[in-house]
Each structure stands twice: as structure tokens, then as C-alpha cells.
């Protein structure tokens, strides 16, 4: 069988590209080295982490908030095996859903490790030792990423773990050290902090979630400290030593020689992910990578070899599932002769802690650096009736608008349900709305979304109504 297009990797980039290619009439194949489809996101990323975030938040709310709501509970306890089982069920249903979509769209699925023989031939090495060969006109590489695990940290998957293993622990640990105050460290740190684990986060930079707006970092850190999490900012881990049961983590102050060590049951390494191109045979076709190991692509996501494209975590840009999906759709539509476009500035970024953090567009630091004149409006959730009703008063919304034109340039939210609320900001920014436009749109009362309108009122002549 010769295919119009073959996709290597079935994560959100790959499987969405496959569906769109099939919708556009291309004979499509997809190769996946693992038994289930869905990639990092569905198997060991977005979906299982959100399942555990939800379960742990229920427990935490029952523990900390129910009494104030007038609900009495006795003998509350965590059933970790059940929590993990529910997570596994969610993952299975979601992966099965992707398998169904492949069938529905008549996409041929090949299980095995794909590698280039030449630009039009991919070999698939199966688990049983056999190989199969696929002939194809075009190829889309969507092989994703893997956690970065420096040798000095002695990653052993047992006590020194990454997010993958942290999603399957059988018991709630007493103590956990997390290396990296980025999104994985804080999401999974929240899961275990809520379940009762003492969490210490070691972050090299001077703030957590350093890629996001500085006010988001401050608000989130305040909330996570209340949850009991401890932070060592401007510190680095030099080594992780395995002990009889647990680990000893050696920490050094970033700007001095001061060191100390922390003993814990687990050390979670969450310092970023690297593009995954192992044994892909890129050298057989001469595909170039950049200095960070990412496959180099042009604005059409085409590699230096015509007809071979790459998308998602394996190329430059933010490592997010919805970014990978957009890129999958873009390449499929390009192959069909259409003229699609992605506005990378409008890809939202969300951290699923509680309060949630969500942002889109430019941060205040980026606007300063680019010399763009801007004004800012902020509104705290504690001034919102809806937030007081649910006792979710932590956080704020900040709107950054152009000083002269009033166009919204960035929206940064920390608070309840901001992961969903950011969609309004994305839509409005896509249509180049001004802060005044939002200030004049009715928002249902009482809802959390009123905070967005109030922040826009604050950004336009400082006229927030409830502050
Ligand atoms: P992947 O999802 O990594 O898929 C690549 C696939 O290719 C894998 O299945 C792999 O087995 C396969 N593959 C690799 N090489 C070969 C080969 N040679 N042959 C055959 N198959 C191969 N993003 C969000 O947007 N929201 C979130 O909430 C979120 N949460 C996350 C939580 C965690 C714990 C982690 C680790 C990540 C999270 N992410 C989240 C990031 C998200 O998972 C990735 O950005 C996304 O999965 C990237 O999609 P992809 O298609 O590029 O690659
Ligand atoms: P990250 O890049 O978000 O954070 C890594 C953090 O580790 C940074 O703050 C960095 O300064 C710090 N760091 C790096 N080296 C260090 C060292 N040696 N010592 C101490 N700190 C160090 O990476 P993370 O959290 O591993 O996540 C990987 C990617 O997965 C993210 O970039 C994100 O794109 C994706 N992801 C997205 C989620 C979401 O959208 N909600 C959830 C989880 C992951």
C-alpha cells in the first residue's frame, strides 16, 4: 500500500494531523511505538495529570473547605489505588477514543518504532521483532518529547522520578523534593501537597513559572505556600543520592557556595523536556536539527527535506498539546493546497493548579522589552461576589492594552476556572478587540467572568465598578 501521507507519532499533533489529512481526502497512515494511541498528552501528560488534579482537589476541598460550607464529614481518607485506577480508566477511555477516530476516518494504524529508510520509505520495527515497510509521498514527524534527566540526578524511575512515574505512585509519600518550579513541578506538586505530602520545590530562577507574567508567579506562589509547599528560589540541585529508602537531594544556593541537603521519599525531576528523535533515522534523509535537538522547520513547518514536515514538541515553540494540534491541522491543510495560518501569539498557556493560571498574548516584561506603550488594569477575585460565594477569592485578572489604540495585548489570570475563562480573551484578541469593547459587553452576574470585564474597565480610565 502506498500512502499520500504517513505520520510518525500519535500524540495530539500526530493524531489530529492524521484526522485532518483523512478529512481532506488523503490516504493516511500513522505509526506509534506504544500499544496505545494519544502520545504523551493522553497517556502520561495532560489527561492523567488533570484526572489526579481533580481527585486531589476534591479531597482537599472536603478536608479544608467543607466545614465552612456547613458539611460535616467523618473518617475522610485517601484511597490511593482507587484514585490511580480512576485516572487509568480515564486514560484508557480517552486513548480508545483516538483509536475509534482512526477507524472512523479510515486511517491505517501501524504499531512499532518508525524510522526513515529514505524520504519516501519508513520502516516500522514491531515488538515481535518483525519489520514492515511503508511507502509514502509525504511524511509528518510528530515524535514529541521526553523529560530531561541529567545524570547527576540518578533518575531510576523508583525514587528519582519524572512526571510519568509521579502519575502512578501507590502510596501518598511523606516528603517529596521537586526540581523545577515550572508547570509540571507545580501541578504534580499540588496533587501531592493536597494529599498531605510535604513538598519542597527547588527552582533555579528567582520566580516560579518563569515564562508567565510576573504577577501570575507572585499570586500562584502565595497560594501554593498556603497549601504548605516550600520554595527554594535561586537554588540548584547539584546531585541526588539514593538512600536505603528514599533520596538525599543536595542543594546549592545559586549565587554562593552555600549548600544543604534535603532527605525525602521521592525526588521529582521536572526541569523541562527534550525533543524526541531517537533512532528515527533522520541521518538517512539528512534532516537538520538545531542546537537544542529540535527538528528545524520553516514557516510552513517543512524540514530542509522537501515533503517532510515536523510538528509539536519536536519542533521549536511552546510544548503544548493545543499548539501541536494547530500545527497538525496547518500541515494537513497546506498539503491539501489551502493557506492556513497560526497566530502563535494567541496560543493560551494554562497551569492547572488551584487557583488556575491562564494567560494569552504578551507579558508586561515582553511589552517593556519591546518598547510598546501599554496600560494595565487589574481586578482581584476577592472583590467578586461569585468568588466569595464559592470561597475562591485568591488571584486576580490583569489586562494589558496598547496605550494609544486600547487594543488588548495580553491577558493574565490567576483564579477559579481561569483555564476556561481565557478562551474569551483569546477570541477577543483574535478579533483585535480593545479593552473598551470588553468593558461594554454584558457579562452574566454572578460569574467569574465579570472579573475580566472589571479588569478591562480598570484598564480604560481606571473605572472598575466593584473596586
Ligand atoms: P507527544 O504527545 O509526545 O506524542 C509523540 C508520540 O510519538 C508518542 O506517542 C511516541 O511514542 C511516538 N513516537 C516517538 N517516536 C516514534 C517513532 N520513531 N515511531 C513511532 N512512534 C514514535 N500540554 C497541554 O497543552 N496541556 C496540559 O495540560 C498538559 N499537561 C501535561 C502534563 C504532563 C505531565 C506532561 C508531561 C505534558 C503535558 N502537556 C500538556 C504537554 C503535552 O503533553 C505535549 O505538548 C504534547 O503531548 C505534544 O504533542 P506531540 O504530538 O508533539 O507529541
Ligand atoms: P518547564 O520548562 O515548565 O519548567 C522547568 C523549570 O525548571 C523552570 O522553571 C526552570 O527554570 C527550572 N529549572 C531548569 N533547570 C533547573 C535546575 N537544574 N534546577 C532547578 N530548576 C531548574 O518544564 P516542565 O515543568 O518540566 O514541563 C515541561 C513542559 O511540559 C512544559 O514546558 C510545558 O510546555 C509542558 N506541560 C504543560 C502543562 C500545561 O499546559 N498545563 C502541564 C505540564 C507540562
TrEMBL record:
Instruction: Give the residues the record marks as binding FAD.
Output: 50, 114, 143-145, 313, 319-322
Residue ranges of domain FAD/NAD(P)-binding in the record: 3-328
Record-annotated Pyridine nucleotide-disulphide oxidoreductase dimerisation domain positions: 347-455
**Cofactor-binding details, from the entry:** Binds 1 FAD per subunit.
Keyword Nucleotide-binding annotated: yes
**Residues holding NAD(+):** 180-187, 203, 272
Names of required cofactors:
FAD
Q: Name one GO biological process term.
A: 2-oxoglutarate metabolic process
EC numbers listed for it are 1.8.1.4
Reaction catalysed by this enzyme: N(6)-[(R)-dihydrolipoyl]-L-lysyl-[protein] + NAD(+) = N(6)-[(R)-lipoyl]-L-lysyl-[protein] + NADH + H(+)
Keywords (alphabetical) are: Disulfide bond, FAD, Flavoprotein, NAD, Nucleotide-binding, Oxidoreductase, Redox-active center
What broad class of enzyme is this?
Answer: oxidoreductase
- Do you know which InterPro entries this protein is assigned to? Class-I_Pyr_Nuc-Dis_Oxidored (IPR050151), FAD/NAD-bd_sf (IPR036188), FAD/NAD-binding_dom (IPR023753), FAD/NAD-linked_Rdtase_dimer_sf (IPR016156), Lipoamide_DH (IPR006258), Pyr_nuc-diS_OxRdtase (IPR001100), Pyr_nucl-diS_OxRdtase_dimer (IPR004099), Pyr_OxRdtase_I_AS (IPR012999)
Disulphide bonds annotated for this chain are 41-46
GO MF terms here are:
dihydrolipoyl dehydrogenase (NADH) activity; flavin adenine dinucleotide binding
Gene Ontology terms: cellular component: cytoplasm
Query: Per the record's keyword annotation, is Oxidoreductase included, yes or no?
Result: yes
UniProt-annotated catalytic positions: 445 (proton acceptor)
Family note: Belongs to the class-I pyridine nucleotide-disulfide oxidoreductase family.
Q: What else is known?
A: The active site is a redox-active disulfide bond.
- Indicate what this protein is called per its UniProt record: Dihydrolipoyl dehydrogenase
High-level lineage: Bacteria, Pseudomonadati, Bacteroidota, Saprospiria, Saprospirales
Amino acid at each position: 500500500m502506498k500512502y499520500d501521507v504517513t505520520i510518525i507519532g500519535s500524540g495530539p499533533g500526530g493524531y489530529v494531523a492524521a484526522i485532518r489529512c483523512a478529512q481532506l481526502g488523503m490516504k493516511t497512515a500513522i505509526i506509534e511505538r506504544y500499544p496505545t494511541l494519544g502520545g504523551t498528552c493522553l497517556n502520561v501528560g495532560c489527561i492523567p495529570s488533570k484526572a489526579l488534579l481533580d481527585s486531589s482537589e476534591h479531597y482537599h476541598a472536603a478536608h479544608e473547605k467543607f466545614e465552612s460550607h456547613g458539611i460535616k464529614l467523618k473518617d475522610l481518607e485517601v484511597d490511593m489505588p482507587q484514585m490511580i485506577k480512576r485516572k487509568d480508566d480515564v486514560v484508557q477511555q480517552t486513548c480508545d477514543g483516538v483509536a475509534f477516530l482512526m477507524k472512523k476516518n479510515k486511517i491505517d494504524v501501524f504499531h512499532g518504532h518508525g524510522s526513515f529508510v529514505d524520504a519516501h520509505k519508513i520502516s516500522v520495527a514491531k515488538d515481535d521483532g518483525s519489520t514492515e515497510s511503508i511507502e509514502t509521498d509525504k511524511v509528518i514527524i510528530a515524535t514529541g518529547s521526553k523529560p530531561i534527566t541529567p545524570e547527576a540526578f540518578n533518575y531510576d524511575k523508583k525514587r528519582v522520578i519524572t512526571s510519568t512515574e509521579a502519575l502512578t505512585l501507590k502510596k501518598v509519600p511523606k516528603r517529596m523534593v521537586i526540581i523545577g518550579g515550572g508547570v509540571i513541578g507545580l501541578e504534580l506538586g499540588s496533587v501531592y501537597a493536597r494529599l498531605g505530602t510535604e513538598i519542597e520545590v527547588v527552582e533555579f530562577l528567582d520566580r516560579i513559572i518563569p515564562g508567565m507574567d510576573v504577577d501570575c508567579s507572585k499570586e500562584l506562589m502565595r497560594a501554593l505556600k498556603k497549601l504548605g509547599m516550600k520554595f527554594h528560589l535561586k537554588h540548584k540541585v547539584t546531585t541526588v543520592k539514593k538512600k536505603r529508602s528514599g533520596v538525599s537531594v543536595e542543594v546549592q544556593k545559586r549565587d554562593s557556595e552555600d549548600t544543604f541537603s534535603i532527605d525525602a521519599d521521592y525526588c521529582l525531576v521536572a526541569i523541562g523536556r527534550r525533543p524526541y528523535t531517537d533512532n528515527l533515522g533522520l541521518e538517512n534523509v539528512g534532516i537538520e536539527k538545531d542546537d537544542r535537538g529540535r527538528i528545524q522547520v520553516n514557516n510552513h513547518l517543512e524540514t530542509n527535506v522537501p515533503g517532510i514536515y515536523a510538528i509539536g514538541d519536536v519542533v521549536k515553540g511552546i510544548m503544548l498539546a493545543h499548539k501541536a494540534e494547530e500545527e497538525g491541522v496547518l500541515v494537513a491543510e497546506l498539503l491539501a493546497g489551502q493557506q492556513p495560518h497560526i497566530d502563535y501569539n494567541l496560543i493560551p498557556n494554562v497551569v492547572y493548579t488551584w487557583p488556575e493560571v491562564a494567560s494569552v498574548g504578551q507579558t508586561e516584561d515582553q511589552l517593556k522589552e519591546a518598547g510598546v506603550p501599554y496600560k494595565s488594569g487589574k481586578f482581584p477575585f476577592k472583590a467578586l461576589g461569585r468568588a466569595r460565594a464559592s470561597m475562591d477569592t485568591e488571584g486576580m485578572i490583569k489586562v494589558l492594552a496598547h496605550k494609544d489604540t486600547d487594543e488588548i495585548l495580553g491577558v493574565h489570570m490567576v483564579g477559579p476556572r481561569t483555564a476556561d475563562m481565557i478562551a474569551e480573551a483569546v477570541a477577543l484578541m483574535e478579533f483585535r478587540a480593545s479593552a473598551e469593547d470588553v468593558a461594554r459587553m454584558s457579562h452574566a452576574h454572578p460569574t467569574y467572568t465579570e472579573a475580566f470585564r472589571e479588569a478591562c474597565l480598570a484598564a480604560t480610565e481606571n473605572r472598575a465598578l466593584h473596586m
